[in-house]
Every structure is written in C-alpha cells, then in structure tokens.
C-alpha cells in the first residue's frame, strides 16, 4: 500500500504586502507574533483593534493575555516588506484540509481510499491507521484508526 499525505493545503496570496501585525500590536500596547495566515497576539488588553482590520477574519482567546488571530483567504500576517518573494501562505483554519492519496495492492487499499474519499479524515488519524496496517498499536495517539480492527 502506498499512502501519501500532505501536511495541509496552501492558499495563493491575493495581497502581496502582509498585515504588519508586529507594528500594529506594538501600537496597541501588545506584541504580535505573525505566522502567515495566523498569528498570536500577547497583551494585557483584549485586541479589539483586530475587529474590522482589513484582512483579519477572526480572533479567539487562547488563555488570559493570549489571542489567536487568522486572516481571510489571500491575506497574511508578517512584518512589512516581505511581500515580493511570497506567492502562497498557510497556517490558518482555511488551510486545514489535506491532500491524501491511497493506492496499491493491499486488501485494505480500496477500503481506506473510500474512507478518504468520503471526507472528514483528520491529520491525527494517519499515524494510528498506518500503525494498524503494520500490526502495531499506538495507545498514546490522539487520532483514530480509519480501518476497522
């Protein structure tokens, strides 16, 4: 059996200049840690300044003083001046889907391919599934074996 799985998808940048989260957060008394399509914002105050910021799709509290923010498709967080060399970005909720290919002569290949085609497979499911195919068990794994035992 051959299984090829991507880490996640990418999206094409429609806006070559990033949202300079480092500067914006500093201007509001916080610290921004940009990471492409998502970012972390640290500070003592809720970053309501992100609401309505062009390109920012949403935010959520991670814990007290720490928020996650993400961009609309085609936008990205970075420091100013990086835009000319980048064509694609990853790292936000819109890029969670994976590319997966299952093939080969193993008896379970068709069954696993059907599971993948039906959708809803998590990246966490691949390690327990591959371990099961090898006759191994990963009790500490977070995902599920996609094939019946």
Describe the protein in words:
With 149 residues, this protein is α+β, with helices and mostly antiparallel strands. It folds into two domains: 11-87, no CATH class; 99-149, no CATH class. The protein is 17% helix and 26% strand. Strands 4-5-7-6 form a four-stranded antiparallel beta sheet. Strands 1-10 form a two-stranded antiparallel ribbon. A two-stranded antiparallel ribbon has the order 2-9. A hairpin with a 2-residue loop joins strand 6 and strand 7 (66-71). The longest helix has 10 residues, at 109-118.
Query: Any idea how many domains?
Result: 2
Q: Based on CA inertia axes, which overall geometry fits? A: elongated
Strand content: 25-35%
User: Could you spell the SSE succession in H and E letters?
Assistant: EEEHEEEEEEEHH
Radius of gyration: 20 Å
Which structural class fits the helix and strand makeup? Answer: alpha+beta
- How far the N terminus sits from the C terminus, by CA atoms, comes to 17 Å
Tally of helical segments: 3
Task: Describe the SSE topology.
Elements: E1 2-5, E2 11-12, E3 19-20, H1 21-27, E4 31-34, E5 38-42, E6 56-63, E7 66-71, E8 77-78, E9 88-89, E10 100-103, H2 109-118, H3 126-133
Parallel strand pairs: 3-8
Antiparallel strand pairs: 1-10, 2-9, 4-5, 5-7, 6-7
